[in-house]
Amino acid sequence: MGRRTIGVRVLGAALALAALAAAATGLLKLRVETTVDSFLPAGDSTVTALGDNARTFGGDPIVVLLESPQPQGLLLGDGRLPALMRLEGALARLPDVATVYGPATIMNQLAITSQDMLARLSGTRDGLRAKAESETQGKGSSASAVKAAGDAAVADFDRRYGALLVRGLPAGLPTTNNPDFVRNVIYDSSGNPRPRWHFVVPSPTAVSVLVRPREGLDEPGTRRLVSAVRDAVGHAGLTTSRVTVTGVPVVTSAVTDEAVGEIPLIGALAVVVLLGRFLLAGRKERLLRRLWPLAAALIGGVLTLAAFGWTGVPMSFGAIVLLPLLLGIGSSFPLYLGMVADRRKVLVMSAASAAAFLSLAISPLPFVRELGFALSLGVLLTVGATLLLGRRFAPSPPEPGDRVRTIGGRRRWALIGCLVAVAAAGWVVLPRLDVRASPEDVARGLSALDEARYAEQVLGSSGEVSVVLRGSDAQSPAALNWLSQAQDVVIARFGDRVRPIITAPDLLGFLGETPTAGEIAAGLQLMPPYLTSSVLSPDGTQALLTFGLKLQDLGQQTQLLDDVRASLPPPPAGAHADVVGLPVAAARAYDLVRWDRYPANLAGVAAAGFVLLLGLRRRADAVRAILAALLATGWTIAGLWAAGQSLSPLTVALGSLATVTAGEFTILLLDDTRPRRAVRWACATSVLGYLVLALSRIGLLREFGLTMAATVVVSYLAALACVSLGRRPVPGPRAAAPSKAELVEV
């Protein structure tokens, strides 16, 4: 062996090690995030409004629901309220917490404010007496006259505020150590929580603590915060019958944990399943030749994940879906390159598949766009790895298969009519299929969603939506009057589906129906800023009505929010009102996905068709591939509609995904070498790749895997139909198979 050969091999080994190290480093840098933002339309006004609202008032809360076996057992009794207050204080001190709302802190703030009010009233009363006595004494009056002047000065004050103090403080001094004070403030005469405190005391046996994260908290920060909240609750020393930690951040954190855990498991399972498939096929081949297609697809998938790691772009569900899909679909490309004489045809077909995947980038949902970029890059990297490294391991060309049987005469036209009619029916009913685009749908099957539903039963709601009034003075009498009218309208018309959580009119209800500007200002001074900041911005330009919603069908929720928005009275001059919140942004995502069905399905067909028409020598083959994609998509949609199934954000672009397999199968079946057996194996490989996803605990991925596995089978049938019905039978003997010398080695 010459020195030059040794040098080349050493250099190749060094480059391979360097590539392996780079890939490993990229994988270590990979971040998996399933934030709510990935399910919402990026850049949309509803998402912007959601961020602005979170910046001022905090994000969607982590809800700590504490239950006691005894009524009022968590607030009344020796040491119970102080223990709860310590827990709320510990939660408020956690990093990335904007604010914490809990019954103990509310009681403490009300007690402090009440004490301050008493001190101010007492000081004011003493000041009036001292001033009157000093003026009378300066006139040389007698001691009795001085005392009478002082009594007269405070008599009017006592008439105005004395009765108020007697009514307002029937339970004694305002202190958290006074159980009568706590009971009178929180509970009514029957022992039930007063309506204004339902958001922190939802029932006699339960209290809730709302931990609002800061705006813009990323997924790692959210996971750390959720873990810290659980730890704080676990060490609080409270006597409870049940503790539930839930909320949108908790659910998304659980989905992320599941996704991170499933990446190696689902990926390894896909490798094992497809390893068995490649070991069973081509037993006459050497082991390396049989496994090379799987290895090439694995290289492409790993490099794609590493690329996301190196660029710092986080992945969501693409990290789970990528390996099974590329191992199932991508591993066929090395086979194609080894079995088809015209390598250019395979490269064009690969580029068309990458273009079809890339068309997912038109989705309004970030996680679908990310998946499209990842799959497109994965296909290109798999083909690149095959071309670069696969010369030694390329499988031998298969034995020529029989020509696909063609059908002629009347039967041909009758079948064409039936098949096209079914596909057309599918395309027609596409707008009638339900689309689920709610972030909650992603967590189906996880315990976090079960806990959220349980908390909803206790709290009466599981999501928040706010009516926001913005203007130069959102604390004016006109603004407060509008907020009261808006709250009354919403409760009167939609009270069976929404419930007030905390609102400015409820907090300032003690001022009466038509308070003046001065009375509002005085009332705000009486209320603790801890509470007023939950409904009024510090600069006085925003005021909130926050309502709770239950988990429900997203279509019904969208209609509800539209009706709420339409029912609001005209805002005061110089102000404007809006409905904001995660349910609003989710409803917007639902609308965009729902109305984006035809573009989402046709984009992949158009992109792949353009590449095929441009790259294939026989344009008729490209036309048949496009037709197969349209047929496969239409048949699958018709099947979903007949079975009463719905679409998800992933399967709503089913046409773009079906184009990949339908186009490949059609082009291969039309090839002169007629590799029918290889196409059947490719179909089985793709089906296995999708079916692996059916084992995921994440409902969205399970449904995606099952739907796409069926779509691959339908794509194979559509390809057979387009080949057998797309041309007339050719008389004469079967064409001779090409020799191995005519095949281009890869």
From TrEMBL:
Domain of life assignment: Bacteria
Presence of the UniProt keyword Mitochondrion in the record: no
Transmembrane segments: 263-280, 292-311, 317-339, 346-365, 371-390, 411-430, 598-616, 623-644, 650-670, 682-700, 706-726
Keyword Transmembrane recorded: yes
Database matches in InterPro entries: Mycobact_MmpL
One Gene Ontology cellular component annotation held by this UniProt entry: plasma membrane
Keywords: Membrane, Transmembrane, Transmembrane helix
Identification of the protein by name: Uncharacterized protein
Protein's organism: Amycolatopsis saalfeldensis
Top-level taxonomy: Bacteria, Bacillati, Actinomycetota, Actinomycetes, Pseudonocardiales
